[in-house]
Design brief:
18 helices; 25% strand; 506 residues; binds biliverdine IX alpha; seven-stranded antiparallel beta sheet; alpha+beta
Length: 506
């Protein structure tokens, strides 16, 4: 794994962030039953917001008749289309935001006063913003436009596009910031900074806001919901109180306000738009947050296009080689191994690699730079058995293969079915990479808490460089697809030929 050890990650990932039993103080939460709107759970700050006790009452007693009617009308339809309902309370205008959880209607009340409003001016610019996003030609451009427009909309001091790698470490790949701030562009952060349960939540919930990381959590009353016997599920609540570990992290970073919007590629969390404010608390209005989420959703839809994925380079070549190899296999009377290793186009030409091993009907052939023949079969079988046939860091899967890093730091192996343990395997050598972390990720400390020892965030986020060894240039998705396609073709062909041989023999 990455810099933070598995155990520590697991303990961080154990924190039940969906049920903190508290909200942030920039609004109040009231959960009610339907259809009578009777109050079941309320945050301790609700009475102050409504100017009267809320326990034992119902929402129609807290709202005027007109707002109650609008609320009831909204409940009949799609709640996402109702949010926010602008209502008037004694203390002023409030954005009322609705969703359902634990069989209750959860209502969240956020005062309009005190929020930053980009408002109508920005909304008029939305069409041109979308035009700019969709007209970008590369992922770099797309994420740059995204960072710039989100900052223009929300007024944060710094807006970053943060991309996860295969091990959930992340990298800042685009940034727009106040000029006097030091750049974070290009810095990496270890997977443990955003633990698994947080990533799982962010894969379904697009937006979270911490207007003031120095806040004091406001408890829910009662702490345990009578109907479920558990604390209220706040995974869909905009006011959800966040992890104290994360608040410590933000304080260590000097961040006063943080907001993040998910970037989701075909259902999988791809990255985040991460926003910081340093000068003081910062709260973009609910409407502006919805607009930001809309930009995040739009960018997410553009991610899988070949242009954004940066996949157009080399894609045609690989497809072309694959077709040529398929033709060679179809036409040759020779063995499949010969067809793949002796023709004008060989398996080594299929995709960029330094060497290839072909093993069909137990017959092994090597081309280019590969590990020695007696090491190739155990290496590939070890990777297959470990469930990591495609890797750019072989020694992390099989430490005993570390001495092969000069030829096989990266292996892309595919099985050819037929019961003879046949395979194709491409090899890439070690390429030393210098990477720069936002703070030395190996210095996280363990803190004692009520729930036992837990990793606490590192204190320094100063750039810290490390040379990564025993890794190869990563395999790209279309390369893996081409290798799998070729293996499937060989599987079919080998089966046909075996059948033919049988018929000839009888
Ligand atoms: C959450 N960590 C987060 C979030 C971000 C980061 C963006 C989402 C919440 C938010 O929007 O603020 C991390 N923020 C970053 C990174 C950058 C940034 C990498 O700006 C880079 C520039 N964090 C730790 C450790 C633990 C931990 C050791 O450092 C665990 C013990 C936990 N991070 C943690 C948790 C959450 C989190 C639990 C979820 C917070 C929540 O939603 O309740």
């Amino acid at each position: 794994g990455g810099p933070a050890g598995e155990d520590a990650l697991l303990r961080c990932a154990d924190e039940p962030i969906a049920v903190p039993g508290a909200v942030q103080p920039h609004g109040a939460l009231v959960a009610v039953t339907e259809p009578d709107l009777a109050v079941v759970v309320a945050s301790a700050n609700a009475p102050a917001l409504f100017g009267r006790p809320v326990a034992g009452t119902s929402l129609d007693q807290l709202l005027d008749d007109e707002d109650t009617a609008r609320l009831l009308a909204g409940l009949a339809g799609d709640l996402a289309e109702v949010n926010p309902l602008r209502v008037r309370l004694a203390g002023g205008e409030v954005d009322l935001v609705l969703h359902r959880a634990d069989g209750l209607l959860v209502t969240e009340w956020e005062p309009v006063g005190g929020a930053e409003q980009a408002g109508a001016a920005w909304h008029r610019r939305l069409p041109s913003t979308l035009q700019r996003l969709s007209a970008t030609a590369t992922l770099e451009e797309l994420t740059e436009v995204l960072a710039r427009d989100v900052r223009a909309l929300t007024g944060f001091d710094r807006v970053m596009v943060y991309r996860f790698d295969a091990e959930w470490n992340g990298e800042v790949i685009a940034e727009d910031r106040r000029e006097d701030l030091e750049p974070f562009l290009g810095l990496r952060y270890p997977a443990g900074d955003i633990p698994a349960q947080a990533r799982a939540l962010y894969a379904t919930n697009w937006m979270r806001l911490i207007p003031d990381a120095g806040y004091r959590p406001v408890p829910l009353e009662p702490p345990v919901t009578p109907s479920t016997g558990r604390p209220l599920d706040l995974s869909g609540a905009m006011l959800r109180s966040v992890s104290p570990v994360h608040l410590e992290y933000l304080a260590n970073m000097g961040v006063v306000s943080s907001m993040s919007v998910s970037l989701i590629d075909r259902g999988k969390l791809w990255g985040l738009i991460a926003c910081h404010h340093y000068a003081g608390p910062h709260r973009p209005s609910y409407a502006d947050r919805v607009a930001t989420e809309f930009l995040g959703r739009t960018a997410s839809l553009l991610l899988p296009t070949p242009v954004a994925a940066g996949e157009q380079n080399g894609m045609l070549e690989v497809a072309q080689r694959r077709a040529e190899l398929a033709a060679a296999i179809g036409r040759t009377p020779r063995s499949l191994t010969e067809a793949l290793t002796e023709g004008e186009v060989t398996a080594l030409d299929l995709l960029p690699a330094a060497g290839v091993a072909v093993r069909i009907n137990g017959q092994l052939r090597l081309l280019g730079e590969t590990p020695p023949a007696d090491r190739v079969v155990p290496l590939v079988q070890g990777l297959l058995a470990a469930g990591s046939p495609v890797t750019d860091a072989v020694s992390r899967v099989l430490p005993e293969a570390a001495d092969l890093s000069g030829t096989a730091s990266g292996v892309l192996a595919v099985e050819v079915a037929g019961g003879r343990e046949d395979f194709l395997a491409w090899f890439r050598p070690e390429t030393l990479r210098e990477i720069t972390w936002g703070g030395n990720p190996y210095t996280s400390t363990t803190a004692q808490t009520d729930a036992g020892p837990r990793l606490s965030p590192r204190r320094s986020f100063d750039a810290w460089s490390e040379t990564v060894r025993e890794t190869a240039r990563p395999w790209r998705e279309h390369e893996v697809d081409a290798a799998r396609g070729l293996a499937a073709l060989l599987t079919g062909t080998a089966a046909n030929r075996a059948e033919e041989d049988n018929r000839l023999a009888t």
